[in-house]
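Quick one, T. Sequence first:
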Amino acid sequence: MRTIIIEDEDLTAEDLALTLKRIEPKTELCARLSSVKEAVAYLKTAPSIDLIFSDIQLGDGESFDIFRQIPPKVPIVFCTAYNQYMLEAFQTFGLDYVLKPFSDESISKTLTKYKLLRQTFNQNTLEMVQSVRPQQAGDTRKKSLIVISGDKIIPIQLQDIAMCYIEYDNVFVKTAAGKEYLVNKSLEEMEHMLGEDFFRVNRQHIIKRTAIAFANTSLSRKLILNLHVEHPIKISVSKEKYQAFIQWLEG
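Structure tokens:
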């Protein structure tokens, strides 16, 4: 496992490196970086790494500034003495959120979560390859979405998703059973992933065809959707998408 540590406190960085080596002897520390500027410069070289351990508050800014400039391609474990950054951490490809002072137990749980996540992705990839018939070789659409809820890694089947929406700049999916999960993807990414059984009715909502019970015409000549799943706000189809929506609804 190839890792980097982003930490501006020498003793903490050294302690973390020794803890990782003690728990996972095959760990290879590729770099120890101490600032936003240094980390951005290093990640621009597209290094081959598996996992990032990062403090949040650094001398020249927050580590979130790093990943706004260099979108992360591997999971990040945020290590900090503060708990108010948790939501933003999980929105930034965060695998785990470890409060300082960390212990062997907390780091061990994080590595277990990482291995499980990696195993899940590998298994999903293997199952997809095995299920593709020769005439379907070009179909590489994903069948599930991985979400992290607390200390759980949950695979959500795309066929079970009823809708996807934005709320306070966060993207959520809601299943047909009414369960909601925060996802680390944009609505545009979800629109591409979900496929033709889903329709983006406006800027905030993507709806599955089978989740729609019926639609009403409002005084403003918009379509108001009534769904089979409960949702706290009324969802309308934007005027410019009216005709396309009706055609899609017909299948």
